[in-house]
Design a protein that fits this description.
This protein is an alpha+beta fold. Helix content is 38%, strand content 30%. Strand 1 and strand 2 (71-73) form a beta hairpin. Helix 2 runs antiparallel to helix 3 (54-60). The radius of gyration is 15 Å and the shape is globular. The model is unreliable at 1-25 (pLDDT under 50).
Length: 162
């Protein structure tokens, strides 16, 4: 029975992300190695989104990029083109993100399945962190997951799933 529960939870995270409830004073997963640097990268990512500053946004991300469970973007130029189009298409000046939970990929690796899971297995490191977020944009609220890699104390967002 336990493997089915674990698989179900992973599918929720990878295939149809639902933001987990958490309290604002203590994020579950904040004890994980690299959390502070990764958290700062997530903050910088959303600051750049709010400012609609493509150059600043590109400073917070890196490739390979996990693109919504559908593909891996290998080129920073391609990623910049995609983010440029996104910033032109929507007003992100009021976007707010609340971290609900953070998990390392390593414990989830064996449970990753489907197209999304296979892509993650190809590019994600066991120490990469999933930031489960609640996103508010205007009157709309939804869940999102950012994948963050910390390397030599420097963190970059390397994927997202909304």
């Amino acid at each position: 029975m336990m493997p089915h529960i674990a698989t179900g939870l992973l599918l929720c995270f990878l295939c149809a992300p639902q933001v987990l409830a958490g309290d604002d004073s203590s994020v579950k997963g904040s004890e994980l190695p690299g959390f502070m640097a990764a958290s700062a990268a997530v903050d910088a990512f959303f600051q750049a989104m709010r400012a609609e500053d493509l150059d600043a946004l590109m400073e917070t991300v890196d490739v390979p990029w996990f693109h919504d469970g559908k593909k891996i973007v290998e080129s920073k130029d391609e990623l910049q083109t995609q983010f440029g189009g996104l910033l032109q298409a929507k007003d992100f000046s009021t976007i707010k993100a609340t971290v609900k939970q953070v998990q390392a990929f390593g414990p989830l690796r064996d449970q990753a399945s489907g197209q999304s899971g296979e892509l993650l297995k190809k590019m994600a490191h066991d120490s990469d962190l999933f930031f489960h977020l609640e996103i508010a944009l205007g009157e709309k609220s939804d869940g999102m997951i950012l994948l963050v890699r910390v390397d030599d104390g420097k963190a970059k967002v390397i994927g997202l799933r909304d």
